[in-house]
Amino acid sequence: MVYDRFGWLGRRLEEDGEAAVTAINSREVVVVSRRLGALSSRLLLFSSVAVVCAGLTAAPAAATDLGRAGGIDYQSQDTLTILPGGHRFAFAVCPSETSLIGAGVAISDPQFGPEAFLNNLGPSTAESAVGIVANSSSTDPASATIFGMCSKIVVEGSARVKELPAGKSLTARVSCPHDLHVTGGGVGLGGDNEDAFVNSYFPFDSGDHNRRPDDGWKVKVHNLTGGDRDIVVEAFCVAKRPTYTTRVDQLAIQNADFKARCRNGGHLLSGGVRVDGRAKGARVHNLRPTDNGSDPDTVPDDLVDVGVANTSGGTRTVTSYAICKS
To answer: Are strands 63-69 and 87-93 parallel, antiparallel or unpaired?
Structure first.
């Protein structure tokens, strides 16, 4: 049970003054931290989610500074090749004196199909993003790039840990602390990285007095294996509310890209995607920060390029989100 594994960690975090831990039941734990680094690195490490465990031992590839706009720094790691049947960890490290405020991913394979898919995306520490991408193809390599959006804005974190049953799908969400607003999120899936994937990854509205999706982060995931695993969903939260734009499309073919744009000169903090229907029938492929090509710079701060692989055989409704600093 989740709380059996997290009870002692919760006491340790609380004693250190780093977090408040609540056990909802034996299968679900919520953590609220004033320091995103304490939340991500320690919670994910001890939850057996492989993202941080590998991050402690794997050396990041060369980083690329994509530029700065609106007080946001955009970072990526050089593209990594993923061999058939394998997976890779990729990192994007924030500049000195900044913290992670959002994360993104770009996955490509020869057919832009479901063979390569997202398994983890979120903070490795308060200053870096990490992603795990798996390639289920038996013959063709794939590639992946992880992006980090970084800022000097004070970021607080919330996380929820749940159990994902064998062979099942699960929707999980975590709310921001009171009066804070979500800028992005994270998802971590424990166990073998080739055996679970992310279907949806997006901000949500809790039904409060406004209709903005600013209250927390939600994910939909699917477990392909015969064993239970842990899932961690995280929210990055700030005091000043960002702007949120959405785009709704119908996906009738196997794969497609959609674009959600910042408005009125806003700067992208992160992107999200929600796919309707059963989680096992679609997979997140891209959440890539992108330049619009029409402003004076080449900084990827204008829109998010959202990619979805549809394996359901039917039409899916896809909602793309751009979360932006105005």
So the answer is: unpaired
